[in-house]
Write a structure and sequence with these properties.
By secondary structure, the chain is α/β, with parallel strands linked by helices. It is built from 7 helices and 3 strands, in the order αβααβααβαα.
């Protein structure tokens, strides 16, 4: 996140993740979870079976940072079960997850032979 904030100083930078990672961060399973939450903004995609508001309410780290601007919760009936791990696994298995990524991201991964 620091890299992108430095690279794009005039832009708002968001950490995009699934609600499963929100749970992990709230339970401090990530190194420097508290700093990560205090210094960044997040877009969180719904996952089946995870109540994002309850996750935030249960975690002091998340609850204390919930100022109405830090977490942008995307639920709208859509639960994204496709994760970054799934996309990496597709590349490793020789799959073509082109439809899951922006074209520029797909091209970068393909050109640089990432995850193979």
């Amino acid at each position: 996140m620091e890299h992108f904030k430095e690279k794009y100083p005039g832009d708002e930078v968001y950490f995009i993740m699934g609600a499963d990672l929100l749970v992990d961060i709230g339970e401090e399973k990530w190194k420097k979870s508290k700093e990560l939450v205090q210094e960044n903004k997040f877009i969180v995609m719904a996952r089946n079976g995870i109540d994002m508001l309850a996750v935030i309410a249960k975690s002091p780290i998340l609850r204390n940072a919930d100022d109405g601007q830090t977490f942008h919760l995307i639920d709208k009936g859509l639960a994204m079960e496709i994760s970054s791990t799934y996309i990496r696994d597709e590349f490793q298995k020789g799959g073509e997850p082109r439809y899951l990524l922006p074209e520029s991201c797909y091209e970068y991964i393909s050109t640089n032979h990432l995850y193979q």
